[in-house]
Write a structure and sequence with these properties.
This protein is mainly alpha-helical. Helix content is 57%, strand content 7%. Helix 1 runs antiparallel to helix 2 and helix 3 packs across helix 4.
Length: 181
């Protein structure tokens, strides 16, 4: 595949490039763009795993700490975490992706703020204590930073073509070794 040619892949790319894998499936070509949907999906998956892991390690369901109870707590919290990421994280990302500065401190603040509705929902009909708001806010911040790190890394890893795919100089675009005559 030539530099700049995406081989027929029409995924959304940044800077005019996209990573694309093609395969035959029942006579049709299946195309996957790593820079768009896949990077987001892996980011949201990572963000969904953070809250149950933190809660399982810091506040197991029964109050006792053991490997079995930590695993049970993790599995109990995971579906709720996935729901929170879909209901709160996905719309926030879709709204802010074009306007956000995407700095680590900004992601921390947004994640902390997204953790607050979770604390309120858990303690309804009563108001959550300040300690609970801080706890779930910090979990939200950790989850948001996890999403951002995964999304940013996968997105930027596929933005630029590999070093060996770039022409060495403008006069020798064929990729052959430069002649020293």
């Amino acid at each position: 595949m030539a530099t700049g040619d995406n081989g027929g892949c029409h995924g959304v790319g940044y800077g005019g490039s996209t990573a694309c894998m093609q395969g035959e499936m029942a006579g049709s070509v299946v195309e996957i763009s790593m820079t768009g949907t896949s990077a987001c999906a892996f980011g949201f998956l990572g963000a969904s795993l953070v809250p149950p892991a933190v809660i399982a390690l810091t506040a197991p369901v029964s109050g006792e700490v053991s490997v079995g109870l930590a695993v049970m707590t993790f599995l109990f919290i995971l579906p709720q975490s996935i729901a929170a990421v879909i209901v709160l994280g996905l719309p926030t990302f879709l709204v802010l992706r074009r306007y956000a500065p995407w700095r680590w401190w900004w992601v921390l603040i947004v994640g902390f703020l997204l953790g607050l509705p979770v604390a309120i929902a858990i303690y309804l009909p009563a108001a959550p204590a300040l300690r609970s708001c801080l706890y779930y806010g910090l979990i939200g911040a950790a989850s948001a930073v996890t999403f951002w790190l995964i999304w940013w890394r996968l997105r930027t890893a596929t933005d630029a073509p590999p070093q060996d795919a770039r022409p060495q100089n403008a006069s020798n675009a064929s990729g052959d070794a430069p002649s020293h005559s």
